[in-house]
Write a structure and sequence with these properties.
This protein is mainly beta. It is built from 4 helices and 20 strands.
Length: 301
């Protein structure tokens, strides 16, 4: 007689014996909310686990400049009740398909798995985990607020169901798990500098001249702009006012380059300015540094 028929007959007899001589089992907490009352006592109980390396997830992700890969470990295992050993033998050699999907994420986040469906061999024994590594790829845009944690909600589902003889016993029932993958955006320190009157100015001797610099914070966090003059022509008076700016996200303010040429000046000279954005709440975190060159000239009549 084929082994499958022997197993089916064995399960039927075990079921009848259980009905005639009930076995008293202490109460337990059901973890799988898809189970119907009693299924945990007869069939196999499915479990899904989702884990990852927190060193990969808690390291801040740089918006626009990084495609973060995080290795997600999806594991499947079973526990069993009264007929567990026979049912497990009956199902040996099969496997289960687990679907994994992203069910919630912020608009500034793009995320996808390498595979959305995985085949995992059916465990040979209870409490033995069969695992599958499926990386998730994450990209953030500039709207991700610096250092504010957010979640990607992941759901894994095993919707495979097997009924036993005459439909009395659920040999294995569907299950799912939902977890939150917590991530942190890095500071994307990008600032724009607009020169509405250009970068060339005529500077007659001893006359103060100004050039406006419109500074806009494109970064994803509040930013301190620190400015300095790094090259000044001999005997010139050059300064930026105000020297520093504090800008909220998307905010812009105007700074002025002020120049006074010496009494004997004629010809062309160069002024170099440097602008350094700092994350307002942590001065040591620096964004993209910008160096802007200005030309000053004067040719007497």
């Amino acid at each position: 007689m084929p082994i499958n028929k022997i197993l089916v007959i064995g399960i039927i007899f075990l079921f009848l014996g259980t009905v005639i001589n009930p076995i008293h089992v202490s109460s337990i907490t059901l973890i799988n909310h898809n189970e119907k009352p009693g299924e945990i006592f007869f069939g196999l109980k499915s479990h899904i686990g989702i884990t990852w390396d927190e060193n990969e997830s808690l390291d801040p992700i740089m918006p626009n400049n990084e495609n973060r890969k995080i290795s997600i470990n999806i594991s499947y295992w079973i526990t069993w009740g009264i007929f567990g050993r026979l049912i497990n033998l009956y199902l040996r050699g099969n496997g289960v398909f687990i679907n994994i999907e992203i069910i919630d994420k912020p608009e500034y986040c793009e995320a996808s798995f390498r595979q959305n469906e995985m085949y995992i061999p059916f465990p040979k024994k209870q409490n033995i985990r069969e695992s599958y590594y499926n990386p998730i790829f994450i990209v953030l845009d500039e709207h991700a607020p610096a250092y504010e944690e957010f979640n990607i909600t992941i759901q894994a589902t095993m919707d495979y169901e097997i009924k036993g003889p005459l439909g009395f016993i659920t040999l294995i029932s569907p299950t799912n798990i939902t977890v939150n993958l917590t991530l942190i955006p890095d500071y994307w320190g990008v600032v724009s500098y607009n020169l509405p009157e250009g970068s060339i100015i005529e500077t007659p001797p001893l006359m103060e001249k100004q050039l406006p610099i419109i500074v806009q914070n494109l970064a994803n966090g509040k930013t301190l702009i620190e400015s300095e003059i790094i090259l000044t022509p001999p005997d010139f008076i050059v300064y930026l006012a105000p020297e520093n700016l504090i800008l909220g996200v998307g905010e812009n303010k105007t700074m002025y380059l002020n120049v006074i040429a010496p009494s004997n000046f004629s010809g062309v000279e160069t002024i170099l300015t440097k602008f350094t954005p700092h994350y307002y709440y942590n001065y040591s975190i620096v964004g993209s540094i910008e160096i802007i060159s200005f030309a000053v000239f004067y040719f007497p009549p």
